[in-house]
Amino acid sequence: MKGPFRLGLTGSIGMGKSTTARLFAEEGIPVWDADATVHALYAKGGAAVAPLSAIFPDAIRDGAVDRDRLKTLLQADKQALFRLESVVHPLVQAARQAFLLAHETADLILLDIPLLYETGADRDCDAVLVVTAAPDVQRARVLARGQMTETQLEMILARQLPDAEKRRRADHVIETLTLEQTRAEVRKLIATLRSRHA
User: What does the function comment of this entry state (predicted)?
Assistant: First the structure.
């Protein structure tokens, strides 16, 4: 097989995606994290800071992108998101390519991308894993973090493909009920993919 098998991981907010990605990493699978990449791009010295300072000067503080200020600007201006994505998406794509080159000898890699379907990144994956949970579990998990209001949660969910549609399009689905059950499912999936694509 040419290069590693690319498993895309996605799931709506509060579905256990970050935990699932960590479980793959614990099994020795290289994981590329789209959110962590964006954080690095927004940090002081990050590649997104200069271009975004030209578009959103009010969102820059101490040489870095202030995510809370940026969020406020995005809520106030419907077109702002498109301008943001036109800068950030190409930078994220370049970072993903660099990761793929660095891990070209791996047999399996995980691409952790929250907006996998929304950005068309599923086309770059050999298979997609969607993590899911019941809506009440999802809401409770997100609000328990204390970093988001109900309104902000609704805004994020409105931007994301509905969970049912993600599950319908997925090659693999894991319901994240407990940590141990999720770990067992992750191990099973790794074994399945390795035996199928060895």
Answer: Catalyzes the phosphorylation of the 3'-hydroxyl group of dephosphocoenzyme A to form coenzyme A.
* C-alpha span between 77 and 125 (Å, rounded): 33
pLDDT tens-digit readout, 46-73: 999 999 999 999 999 999 999 999 988 8
CA distances from 193 to 5, 20, 133, 186, 198 (A): 8, 16, 23, 11, 8
How many Cα atoms within 13 Å fall on the side-chain side of residue 167? 12
* CATH (one of 2.40.50.100, 3.60.20.10, 3.40.50.300, 1.20.1530.20) for 1-30+109-198: 3.40.50.300
Q: Is 14 annotated as ligand-binding?
A: yes
195 is in an annotated binding site: no
28 is in an annotated binding site: no
